[in-house]
Amino acid sequence: MYELECFCEWLSSELYNKNVAVVGSSPNLLGKKYGELIDSHDIVIRFNNASVSGYENSVGCKTHLRFVGFRAGASHYKFFNSLAGNEKIISIAKNEEFFSSYKNGIILEYSFHRASYGLIDFLLNEKISERAEYQKPPRTGFALVTHLCFILPFLNSLNIFGMERGFRDEGPEHFYNDGVKLENIMKRREKNHCDIESELFLFNELLKNYSVGFYG
């Protein structure tokens, strides 16, 4: 299990001098032809149970690292078993048992999501972590981007695909067909995460202040 400092050192080593693509799951990716561009990166990072099957032209097919921020359960076994150990899985402590038999699994002992606020304090030189609107954890995509901006000097390049810079509260949550509609999960989001618009403000500040490519 990895603590914050240990994980950042591992991530810096894993991504050292690499061209890195972070691929979110926004439905905005549908109709885009980013697949070849995404796959041209040395390292491709995806999230949770995002499947590329049938969407390769838009999202590519390569995956090297996968960050899993939700609590994985029985309904997810089939998907993760289908990866056949070809991807490195990074997940939170509550999934330690679920991924215990996964040969490329890495479990984070520290609070990966909440730690991003401390990194933001450093990256933006502001005490963001003390503000009331940031007392709940952010979403996994934002937390990862924050960690990557923190180690950005070690990367050759960082490009983000399929994440959104503006607020949206309706329509499909993901590009892949899992049937989840934002209008049905907003209350759950508000319960489990910080204010989404406040998170997006920080996301846009990172993009403004750091050399990160963005493809919506």
Automatic annotation (TrEMBL):
<dbReference type="GO" id="GO:0097503">
    <property type="term" value="P:sialylation"/>
</dbReference>
<keyword id="KW-0328">Glycosyltransferase</keyword>
<dbReference type="GO" id="GO:0003835">
    <property type="term" value="F:beta-galactoside alpha-2,6-sialyltransferase activity"/>
</dbReference>
<keyword id="KW-1133">Transmembrane helix</keyword>
<keyword id="KW-0812">Transmembrane</keyword>
<dbReference type="Pfam" id="PF00777">
    <property type="entry name" value="Glyco_transf_29"/>
</dbReference>
<dbReference type="InterPro" id="IPR038578">
    <property type="entry name" value="GT29-like_sf"/>
</dbReference>
<keyword id="KW-0808">Transferase</keyword>
<protein>
    <recommendedName>
        <fullName>beta-galactoside alpha-(2,6)-sialyltransferase</fullName>
        <ecNumber>2.4.3.1</ecNumber>
    </recommendedName>
</protein>
<keyword id="KW-1015">Disulfide bond</keyword>
<keyword id="KW-0325">Glycoprotein</keyword>
<keyword id="KW-0472">Membrane</keyword>
<dbReference type="InterPro" id="IPR001675">
    <property type="entry name" value="Glyco_trans_29"/>
</dbReference>
